[in-house]
Amino acid sequence: MPFNIPVNLFPTDASPEWMNKGDNAWQLTAGTLVGLQSVPGLVILYGSIVKKKWAVNSCFMALFAFAAVLVCWVGWGYQMSFGSEQLVPFLGRPGLASLRASYLVEKAFAGKFPNATMIFFQFVFAAITLILIAGALLGRMNFYAWMVFVPIWLTCSYTVGAYSIWCPDGWLAKMGIIDYSGGYVIHLSSGVAGLTAAYWVGPRDDKDRERFPPNNILLMLLGAGLLWMGWTGFNGGNPYMASRDASLAVLNTHVCAAMSLLTWLMLDIMFFVKPSVIGATQGMITGLVCITPAAGVVQGWAAMIMGILSGSIPWFTMMVVHKQVSLLKNIDDTMAVFHTHAVAGSLGGVLTGLFAEPRLNRIFFDMTDGWQHYIGLAYGLKTGRVQAGLRQMGIQLLGILFVVVWNIVITSVICVAIRVVIPLRLTEEVLQFGDEEVHGESAYALWGDGEKLIETSKLQSGHGFDEFSVKEGSNFR
What is the Cα–Cα distance from 218 to 224, expressed in whole angstroms? Predict the structure, then answer.
């Protein structure tokens, strides 16, 4: 009996033979899920986890970064990170190919979808990296300095890590480093860069640093929930196809996050008596970060072990080590980005070198030959290939060293250069008032707060609120 192919599966100019409609649809969906982690996920999380007077500023730092990164990414960032023309062994040549329609509809360097899909998918990863850095700087950085920092850091730092580790021509990629979905490129780099930038920007106001309660824990949980669920696309999209490896990565991601959350919660109860929802959120994040470099190349039992370690080791560095090491104590990392992303990301990279399963690596890298050297040390010991396992662990450690050193140096240079022109930190007077001084806006118009907002808004918008005046009994009273 002859089999008739449905008409909608025949190749056309809109859907050529090399394109897989299912993979393309999944990749666009995964990219959108990652985008939702930033906008509105981290926008809500940042705006609610800080003091009320910094809610608007914290939200806006994230929103600005998302928009600015997109413009830079299509302008030159993508070509520097994934372009086919190499400038140096750790960087691609900048170019405007990402703006040409003829290039955008061509097949991407990996996967069965066009360049436009790949550019969008990789953009949301670049954007969230800058937004994570912002988490270390909330509550005192000059917004104008942040506007300059974002495009420069993207150009000089993120592109180097992405090209070296993820681009097939990158030097670490050729060596065989395993970074499934950004444990190095995104989390380790943002954690180190955030801590470094926090050093140069300086601390928050003394009163803010002593006491910095969230203004809305319920909204914080909403943002955290978007971050957690968005990780389905974060890790599930990196096989670049709707494959069985993507399914494994998604399940491992959520298992590790849940185990890490529970571990952190138990430690909080054991040592501080009360179960902390903020602590549980931190544990959730460290679990998500730790599994990221390994999501689709480790087995389920390994994901659970990684969850236990990611819920305990970053907890220890944050609650114990941070309070004893003078360098860490003196640097004001508002959201503890160093511990939740740099420590957890490094831990994930090392555990990837330990638990990476050769057969899963073959599926992920979609290789018929050459996959044998992608082997975790545990499997090297089991199969008698100890040298191969040690080599993989060495490459993982080399990647950590490279990302740490590069981000400390480049982030320091950028911050020092910017402060020659623009102060990195807001003045003490501005720090006292926060949003109203920086933006002329306030997050919550309650009681008398709204009356001040009316005058400010009239000046900024050029028109009044005649229809909703205070005299007529508006909600601004």
Answer: 10
309-353 pLDDT per residue, tens: 999 999 999 999 999 998 899 999 999 999 999 999 999 999 999
Cβ-contact 268, 327 below 8 angstroms: no
CA atoms within 13 A on the CB side of 67: 8
Residues 317 and 372: their CA atoms lie apart, in Å, by 35
> Considering Cα of 20, then 99, then 124, then 223, what sign does the dihedral take?
negative
Give dist(CA 322, CA 315) in Å, integer: 10
Q: Extract long-range pairs of 371-375: CB within 8 Å, 24+ residues apart.
A: 373/176, 374/176, 374/178, 374/297
Cα distances from 336 to residues 271, 415, 469, in angstroms, run: 19, 19, 43
Q: 3-class DSSP state for residue 107?
A: strand
**Cβ neighbour number for residue 167 with a 10 Å cutoff:** 24
50-74 confidence digits (pLDDT tens): 999 999 999 999 999 999 999 999 9
Q: At what angle do helices 386-421 and 189-201 cross, to 10 degrees?
A: 30
Per-residue pLDDT reduced to its tens digit, 184-196:
999 999 999 999 9
Cα–chain-centroid distance for residue 347?
16
